Amino acid sequence: MEEGAFIRGPADEKEICLVFTGHEFAEGGEFIRRTLRRHRIPASFFFTGDFYRNRKFHSLIRGLVADGHYLGPHSDRHLLYNDWSDRQKVLVDRETFQKDLWANYREMEPFGIRPARGRIFMPPFEWYNRTIVQWAEELGVRVINYTPGTISHTDYKSPADRGRYYSSAEIYAQILDYERRSPQGLRGFLLLTHIGAGPGRPDKFHLYLDRLVVELAARGYRFLSVDCWFGPGAAAAAARPASP
Fold first, then answer.
1. Among candidates 76, 73, 15, 84, which has minimal Cα distance to 50?
2. Residue 216 belongs to some domain of the structure
3. In a domain, 242, yes or no
């Protein structure tokens, strides 16, 4: 666990969760949906209220729901909860946090996603601390975050992010290299990428999803949605965090 949030599922089986977040962009959405359908595997999607409100994304959201994927909240307005330089400095108060999260849930309801179904929450920017986790738990919401170790979460960065940009080929290769080198591989991994990176990144990682799924399946992995590990009634046993 990290700051009270689950960052990995049980590592005793070759099981992995593909996790996608979205706020402003979704250019990879239909490609991702088609790829998951073709391979008949579930995934988990965490969208902001702004994403759910965006009419351009409504057809995609309805399709993901119809396909049986897990859809959850990512905050209504994509708030920054904690200072980047001091994680323990909280930038929002409890009331603001709760109102924003419930506003996110209200935007999910027109798509048939009730709060009881979407009680797993990935914080915006994947940045939070124990205070945020506690506030979420008081609402009956379980906080999760991606498993550290790979650079999959950097797939939104553009070439302008000097020193922090990785090509999609580099991200793909690093994921598979980490799986090979790590004693636990990607067992119990929450592997985060983004449903859209925006126009600033011409090299889209979602185009590598098909080959990634094929390769991981060939290595014996089974794909789950996050509620299998962290939903109501699930064991939600957190494994030892992976080493960076």
1. 76
2. yes
3. no
Tokens 């250019």 identify what position? 27
* Residue 5 belongs to a domain: no
pTM above 0.85, yes or no: yes
Domain annotation covers residue 8: no
Q: Domain span at residue 39?
A: 15-230
Exposure letters 27-40 (e unless 16+ CB within 10 A, then b): ebbeebbebbeeee
How far apart, in whole angstroms, are the C-alpha atoms of residue 130 and residue 177?
A: 32
The number of folded domains in the chain is: 1
Q: Would you give per-residue pLDDT tens digits along the chain (244 residues)?
A: 999 999 999 999 999 999 999 999 999 999 999 999 999 999 999 999 999 999 999 999 999 999 999 999 999 999 999 999 999 999 999 999 999 999 999 999 999 998 777 899 999 999 999 999 999 999 999 999 999 999 999 999 999 997 789 999 999 999 999 999 999 999 999 999 999 999 999 999 999 999 999 999 999 999 999 999 998 766 544 443 333 2
Q: Which amino acid is at 228?
A: C
The tokens for 147 are 């498993």
